[in-house]
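Entry 14: structure prediction run for ABC transporter ATP-binding protein. Input pasted below.
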Amino acid sequence: MIEIESVSVDFHTKLRTVRALKDVSLSVPQGTVFGLVGESGSGKTTLLRAMMGLTAVSSGGVKIAGEAVRQNPPLAFRRRVQMVMQDCYASLNPAHTVDQIIGEPLAIHRFDNPEKRILQALKDVGLGPEHRFRFPHQLSGGQRQRVAIARCLAIEPQVMLLDEPTSALDVSIQAEIVNLVMRLQQQKGLTLFIISHDLPLVTHMCDRLAIMRKGMVREVITSQDLIERKVEDDYTKVLLSASL
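Run finished. Output tokens:
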């Protein structure tokens, strides 16, 4: 479902060029959950933005569902691939109600029966109809993240990209969102690509994961390999020790 082939990304300033991604290659089968782990500044979000066509790649390429990703991708691509941002409050329009937030992509993609789809999307993420006409500031952090997920689910994507989906939430709420995402992935057969700095979280959620540092993929392993500590890269070993 996702093919990342030798992707490099450069950012240019007046004084120098910074290579944020260096020859990154990854493959994610349809219907699986893939995790990308690394410390802050390792290039995780840059890769996610390249996968959405929000950041230009300097070399290499990304294909999702067999279609090459380019900047300003067509509407059909935006329906198939949806992204949940790290800051669930900043990603929701504070002047819009939940109804408007979920209804806007439905209108853009010209779905019929929008009211039914909005109610179903809310139900899918564990929110009732009483939340429909509330504004983001009237919701808790966990509820806002659920709305962000519902907005994505409403247009029936094939792929969801999640950028640190629980980092802005209290520990007590993190487990609820993790369980929600895993349940929805199984029910709807979604392909999930999750980035995080939380190694235990990604190990729990993902089938396979990649370890990233300084714009490079150091190692790709299964979650079971990580649990059994069957890792080869020295940086992965350090990261694993630090997470215990």
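Notes: The beta strands are 2-12, 17-28, 33-37, 59-64, 67-68, 81-84, 159-163, 191-196, 208-213, 216-222. Will compare against the previous run tomorrow.
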